[in-house]
Write a structure and sequence with these properties.
Elements (H helix, E strand, L loop, with lengths): L1 H19 L7 E12 L5 E3 L5 E3 L4 E14 L2 E9 L3 E2 L12 E17 L2 E17 L12 E16 L4 E10 L8 E11 L3 H6 L2
């Protein structure tokens, strides 16, 4: 038992020392963008054709995000962003409708971000709040309480990812983010590759001075 405890202490000490010697970006503002696959997880709906038909949507597609934030230190940052999700498309026969109806979702989020750096890499997680605007286009049945086909939701958001410091200013990341469902809103997922530019002094940022 004592040997296992000593091994655990050794592993923790090693990770901490690696984090302490990491070559990461320093404190300051940053701006970035990301592209990837979104999934809005929308459900089957009734399309108002003659006669009405029930359709299972296509929920995945290319999404994009722009973001910015402030790095407090190598362990913490605050971030805000705007995400455009690929629309959910309810494919209906052209003999019933000339265009397939869609559900479009866009969101603004505010998050706190925690990171653990190891050399030029970092593992991070983030959590916060998202404001989602959902618009129904075409002949879809609206949700209960909707009068104009547009709704706004305030939902929790969380994410995890891995970052890599290409330099003291340029950082790349692979991340997964989810806006959590609630009420008539379904989970909105985003798997993306992103890059950001950090407005820090080249040498000070490299050595965290």
């Amino acid at each position: 038992m004592m040997t296992q405890k000593l091994k655990l202490i050794g592993i923790i000490t090693t990770l901490w020392s690696l984090a302490a010697t990491a070559s990461a970006t320093g404190a300051g503002f940053y701006l970035g963008g990301a592209l990837g696959e979104t999934n809005t997880n929308n459900r089957v709906r009734t399309v108002q054709t003659t006669p009405p038909v029930t359709v299972d949507p296509s929920n995945t597609g290319l999404g994009a995000r722009i973001f910015g934030g402030y790095v407090v230190n190598k362990y913490a940052a605050f971030e805000g962003g705007f995400t455009r999700y690929s629309p959910s498309t309810y494919n209906v026969s052209s003999s019933l409708l000339p265009e397939s109806p869609t559900i479009r979702e866009n969101g603004v989020d505010l998050t706190a971000r925690g990171s653990f750096p190891i050399y030029d890499f970092s593992v991070f997680g983030k959590a916060g709040i998202a404001f989602i605007r959902e618009s129904l286009a075409g002949s879809l049945n609206t949700n209960p309480g909707q009068t104009n086909g547009t709704s706004t939701y305030i939902r929790p958001i969380g994410g995890i990812g891995v970052g890599y410091d290409f330099s003291a200013n340029w950082v790349g990341e692979l991340s997964y983010t989810r806006v959590f469902k609630g009420g008539n809103f379904q989970n909105a997922d985003f798997i993306s590759l992103g890059v950001s530019y950090h407005f820090v002094d080249k040498y000070c940022g490299q050595f965290l001075c």
